[in-house]
Design a protein that fits this description.
The structure holds three protein chains of three kinds. Chain A has ten helices and ten strands. Chain A is an alpha/beta fold. In chain A, helix 7 links the parallel strand 7 and strand 8. The termini of chain A are far apart. By secondary structure, chain B is an alpha/beta fold. Chain B has an eight-stranded mixed sheet, with helices on both faces. Chain B has a four-stranded antiparallel sheet with strand order 2-1-4-5, covered by helices on one side. In chain B, a hairpin with a 2-residue loop joins strand 9 and strand 10. Chain B is globular. The relative contact order of chain B is 0.14. By secondary structure, chain C is mainly α. In chain C, helix 5 runs antiparallel to helix 6 and helix 9 packs antiparallel against helix 10. The chains are: A alpha/beta, B alpha/beta, C mainly alpha. Chains in contact: A-B, A-C. Chains A and B meet through helix 6, helix 7, helix 8 and helix 10 of A and helix 6, helix 7 and helix 9 of B.
């Protein structure tokens, strides 16, 4: 049973003028337990919309989202709230993903309070705000509790956002461009943290990115999205070295090389 | 470096401070940089490195009220423009330097047609007849259809806007184009198109370019030389191929590893430890020392002079790991202006 | 918070206005203990020009103008604050709900708000008070009814912007219920411009109360600036002080609340560079 299955998803937006735009067209994608799938595409390709649908933040106009075999669309809102905590987001802009009026302690406490009863039984789960902070490398955790998001550096903010996601004991993390907001020198830190988390907890990632180098370094499988459709998907090593589709080839060719 | 061509821009040991309520921010701590006529130079740095401040200083765009150049000079085609007032800059801008920015929308007038904006730029700098004809030429130059002269900025895609802003900048026939992260907001395929356009324009117009970016890949594909800036100081500079072949400063080395998402022997992603520098504190030694894996006691005490790394004087670094100019050990090392 | 205060304090006009408002509040609180004659006290010293005995003069019944203005602070501030508070609470609740849930509810609320904004508020207020009879509570109610749509519109816009931000989505993914998200995440972040608008409503309310009492539509036995202005205007040519001083009091107070509102709005805007 896959962790997440997106089954023939279509999503249509209505522009302010009234025109209809198909953001996602008949897309199917599966993420297995513990697997990292990179969803690669340019802006406007529909990849972020698909991510929001996977998180249950948007309802698709057609198709089904299955969490462990159960369809989100058939759940009551209470059931949906309970089930979807298994999927946690990490956004591009950690500044925007933390309520500016809450100190770190509040942000994490809010998550700890919401965590499902079953999750606390697992031993790999942190019980306090300080433990959470230290598990994402913010040591000593107590030094960060009273700080507000604007008092943290970009890398620290992203770590707090990751800590909050971990508080829920998630099985899948949907990371939407988690490194685009970070400086080059911070990227490695965040990538290491994400792969440590994966190793320790065996969770899966749906990594939404435009950055081929991240997909190459991080993903087990890659799905390439273009104009609302997945044009190619397969093992990362294969798709990124021997693409079969023209669009993938063009995308790879457009990336500036560090070494010619 | 082609010493035959005269420099269009010389920035010499510029120190620039922003006054804020939280205290002074030392954005530039003795930054030096030279661009020769027709040359494409990359300025690479992360956020807070001072790269945009440096670019803005070239055009006098830093706020007059809250920023101050404490020391150093900026020479444009040999003329000292360090102390020009805001009013004097008004007459200078666009000639011989023009600038394009990451977000074209904030620099294009939202309620004026593209063609009119280009025309105004033409008229401001070189009053002439046949303006409409020139607008057409400029649009063609940036590879936009002439019909777009009647479009408003919001009707264009991100890539088209950047082209339109380029046309406005080129209307002043600049000898140096300063481009601040011109492709950061764009998709990779559009980014590749804009970079190709910039290359093409430079060749056709013989224009020099200062490209400010955080992306080493862009420098590789667009620049002949590059400067690496960190905490308001240039740490390393040289011909792109030389720096790429053998990055010298530990910071540059770290940047390369991080940018390629390299892994070390243990399978960890390469990373530069620590936090970005605090520009509120006056830096005594090398600003990178607190994060540097190879830091020594000298590093914290003072900033080393430049060491030239090759005979062609095309690659230099400021780092204590390399023999200092005065050292007996250094055969080839001698000081050059960065 | 510190930053907000620092930004606020860099608006000199705002700081001055705040000091003035604070002074008014102190005067209002101290009304029962104010020195000087009772403003309702009739005396033989009628229509006296300003002098040492009566710094701002007396009216046609020998009542002290300074005393009237000082006692009038209480009425003006009570009306202003009560109306602004009521309008803000109503506006926040309605605007936030409409903006957050959208749909038919939003459409309905915004149509109602439009109606209120199109009708000239002063005429409507005058008609309502004239029909229902004068009285301070009625005046407050009418002003609040007229002013809430401004707050609601503002709140709706802010809520619509904020509900799409990533931090709200992040909390939604924690399984927090929607009404809780609205109350604890969205509204606190949307309040800043509303607070500024609320301050402006205080000014509008003071002005409207003065206008209504100028027309004799407020409570007759209350000492109010508008009523003083009303009775003074008959003697504009021979006793200027009866109109000029209450008029100045209204003008300064309305100005102060407007400046204060602007300064609060600017100070709470984190994007503003002070």
């Amino acid at each position: 049973m896959p962790l997440l299955a997106l089954d023939a998803i279509t999503h249509i937006f209505r522009r302010s003028g009234g025109a209809l735009v198909t953001a996602v067209r008949d897309v199917s994608l599966v993420v297995e337990e513990g697997e990292t799938v990179a969803l690669v595409g340019e802006s406007g390709s529909g990849k972020s919309t698909l991510g929001r649908i996977a998180l249950g933040l948007l309802r698709p106009d057609a198709g089904r989202v299955l969490i462990g075999g159960k369809s989100l669309g058939e759940m009551s809102s209470r059931e949906l709230r309970r089930e979807r905590v298994a999927f946690q987001p990490i956004f591009q802009d950690a500044t925007a993903s933390l309520n500016p009026r809450r100190p770190v302690r509040d942000l994490l406490r809010q998550a700890l309070r919401q965590r499902p009863a079953g999750a606390t039984e697992s031993t790999s789960i942190e019980r306090s705000e300080v433990e959470l902070l230290e598990s994402v490398g913010l040591r000593p955790g107590s030094a960060y509790l009273e700080r507000y998001p604007h008092e943290l550096s970009g890398g620290q903010r992203q770590r707090v956002a990751i800590a909050r996601a971990l508080a829920m004991g998630p099985r899948l993390i949907v990371a939407d461009e988690p490194l685009s907001g970070a400086d080059v020198s911070i990227r490695g830190q965040v990538l290491n943290l994400l792969s440590d988390i994966k190793k320790e907890r065996g969770l899966g990632y749906l990594m939404i990115t435009h950055d081929i180098s991240i997909a190459r370094a991080f993903a087990d499988r890659v799905a390439v999205m273009c104009q609302g459709e997945i044009v190619e998907q397969g093992p990362a090593t294969l798709v990124l070295t021997e693409p079969t589709q023209d669009y993938t080839k063009r995308l790879l060719a457009a990336v500036p090389r560090l070494f010619q | 470096m082609s010493p035959t061509k005269p420099p269009i821009l010389q920035i010499e040991d510029v120190r620039l401070t922003f006054r804020t309520r939280e205290g002074a921010i030392r954005a530039l701590n003795g930054a030096s940089l030279t661009i020769h006529e027709g040359e494409a130079v990359g300025l690479v740095g992360e956020s807070g490195s001072g790269k945009s401040t440096l670019a803005r200083a070239v055009l006098g765009l830093n706020p007059e009220r809250s920023s101050r150049i404490e020391a150093g000079r900026i020479l444009m085609a040999g003329r000292d423009v360090t102390w020009l007032s805001q009013g004097e800059w008004e007459g200078e801008r666009g000639h011989p330097v023009a600038m394009v920015f990451q977000d074209p929308l904030s620099f294009l007038n939202p309620i004026m047609r593209i063609g009119r904006q280009i025309a105004e730029s033409i008229e401001r700098h070189t009053p002439q007849r046949r303006v409409a004809e020139r607008v057409g030429e400029l649009l063609e130059l940036v590879k936009l259809p002439s019909s777009l002269a009647r479009a408003y900025p919001h009707e264009l895609s991100g890539g088209m806007r950047q082209r339109a802003l380029l046309a406005v900048a080129l209307a002043c026939e600049p000898r140096l184009l300063v481009a601040d992260e011109p492709t950061t907001a764009l998709d990779v395929t559009t980014q590749a198109e804009i970079l190709a356009l910039l290359r093409d324009l430079r060749e056709r117009l013989g224009m020099a370019m200062l490209l400010i970016t955080h992306d080493l890949g862009i420098v590789a594909s667009a620049c002949e030389r590059l400067y690496v800036i960190y905490a308001g100081r240039v740490l390393e500079w040289g011909r792109t191929q030389n720096v790429f072949a053998a990055p010298a400063h530990p910071y540059t080395v770290g940047l390369f590893h991080a940018a390629r998402a390299d892994r070390d022997a243990k399978g960890r992603f390469a990373t530069i430890g620590g936090e970005p520098p605090d520009l509120g504190e006056p830096a005594q030694g090398c600003p990178f020392a607190p994060r540097c894996p190879k830091a020594m006691t000298e590093c914290v005490r003072s900033m080393p002079d430049a060491t030239v790394l090759d005979q062609g004087e095309s690659h230099a670094v400021r780092c204590w790991l390399y023999p200092q100019p005065g050292d007996a050990a250094s055969a080839s090392g001698r000081v050059v202006g960065g | 918070m510190h930053r907000t205060w620092r930004r606020f304090s860099s608006y000199r006009a705002g700081v001055l206005a705040a000091a003035y408002v604070l002074l008014l509040v102190l005067v209002a609180l101290a009304t029962p203990f104010l020195p000087g004659p009772d403003p309702r006290q009739i005396s033989n010293e009628v229509m006296q020009a300003p002098s040492f005995a009566h710094l701002l003069g007396t009216d046609e019944l020998g009542r002290d103008v300074l005393s009237g203005i000082l006692h009038g602070v209480e009425v003006s501030l009570t009306v202003g604050f009560a109306a602004a508070l009521a309008a803000t609470v109503i506006g926040v609740v309605i605007g936030a709900t409409a903006g957050y849930y959208g749909g038919a509810l939003d459409l309905l609320v915004m149509r109602i708000a439009e109606v209120f904004q199109v009708v000239p508020s002063f005429i409507l207020a005058a008609v309502i008070v004239a029909l229902s009879g004068p009285g301070l509570t009625r005046v407050v109610t009418v002003i609040a009814l007229l002013a809430w749509p401004q707050v609601a519109r503002l709140m709706r816009g802010e809520v619509m912007r904020i509900k799409g931000l990533e931090f709200v989505d992040a909390v939604r993914c924690l399984g927090v219920r929607e009404p809780v998200i609205l109350a604890t995440e969205v509204i606190p972040n949307a309040l800043a411009p509303v607070l500024a608008a609320g301050t402006l409503i205080v000014a509008q309310a003071i002005l409207l109360e003065a206008a209504l009492s100028f027309l004799g539509l407020s409570s007759a036995d209350l000492v109010s600036w508008g009523r003083m202005l009303n009775s003074g205007q008959r003697f504009l040519y021979n006793a200027w002080w009866l109109s000029v001083f209450p008029g100045t009091a209204i003008f300064l107070t309305v100005l102060a609340f407007n400046l204060l509102g602007d300064a609060i709005g600017a100070a709470l805007n984190p994007r503003a560079e002070a």
